[in-house]
Write a structure and sequence with these properties.
single chain; 3 domains; four-stranded antiparallel sheet; 283 residues; flat; alpha+beta; 12 helices
């Protein structure tokens, strides 16, 4: 535009129009042309990160139930003993009717110990009783994680929407991490199964899973040594050993209990079983 008009006064109107159009597009359309295709595949991005897993797990699935509850009237000196015994860093605080009143942390306890006559204080004197953040048992973990990050705390009390004054559990950072890892592993397993199903439909190729028994002929043998007797075109893809997934090489030794994942032509399936297990299987 500048080269055609030789008028640089168009810069400001052009910049203004660009900014307004961008803001309007973001307001009207949730996704860009890049994230829209990801959403169609079930991948939800929030601020550039995959939040889909955290949104599919409810707090009730990850929380710690039956947490230790501290009464408001408990002496602070007794609270110190509980911190030492439980190795926990914070507790929900409840009143005489077991209703949620606040949270007390080990930092609150340590700060109060610096004051004179702190032994005569009670939990209600040092606990956080206002602007208390909670997590609901039916909300996604992503919401609870955001609240934990806002306050930079280790845990939140969990309540139900029907009775927000009753503590049903606590959600900790490590609870969220554990649930996320479990869900991530579950999704990875699901993806593997989907890939296996898809690959099984490809022509005459079969995806086989062979478990090595202690007394079969391939136990304690290297793949290189077994190679000459394997069917032509057979591909050893991976080996599942306990909780590890191994990428096989020629010097990889097959051990009893290994789950060997192999691509082989259907016509060579019996030959492969005979080579690895010393058995044949009729169609």
């Amino acid at each position: 535009v500048f080269e055609m008009s030789n008028d640089y006064q168009l810069i400001l109107p052009l910049m203004l129009a660009t900014v307004l159009s961008t803001l309007l597009a973001e307001h009207l359309f949730r996704d860009s042309i890049y994230t829209f295709k990801l959403r169609l595949r079930g991948i939800t991005l929030q601020r550039g990160r995959d939040m889909d897993l955290m949104q599919t797990i409810q707090v009730s699935e990850a929380m710690t139930v039956k947490p230790y509850l501290v009464p408001l009237e408990m002496p602070v000196k007794d609270l110190g003993v509980i911190f030492e015994q439980t190795h926990s860093h914070s507790f929900p605080v409840v009143d005489e009717e077991m209703r949620l009143a606040g949270m007390v942390s080990i930092r609150d306890y340590e700060r109060m110990r610096e004051r004179p006559a702190w032994e005569h204080l009670k939990v209600k004197d040092i606990a956080t009783l206002r602007t208390l953040l909670v997590a609901f048992d039916d909300e996604p973990l992503s919401d609870a994680l955001q609240r934990i990050a806002i306050r930079d705390v280790n845990k939140l009390p969990v309540v139900s929407r029907s009775n927000p004054q009753k503590v049903v559990g606590v959600i900790r950072r490590r609870d969220i991490i554990k649930a996320y890892k479990t869900s991530l592993a579950r999704r990875a397993d699901q993806q593997i199964e989907e890939d296996k199903t898809r690959l099984r439909r490809l022509g005459d190729v079969e995806f086989m899973e062979v478990e090595i028994a202690p007394n079969c002929r391939s136990a304690h043998q290297t793949i290189a040594r077994l190679g000459p007797s394997l069917p032509d075109g057979c591909v050893v893809v991976s080996i599942s050993r306990q909780d590890n997934l191994l990428i096989p090489h020629g010097d990889t030794v097959l051990l009893p209990g290994d789950q060997v994942n192999i691509f082989v032509r259907r016509v060579d399936e019996n030959k492969l079983r005979e080579c690895l297990l010393g058995e044949t299987q009729t169609a």
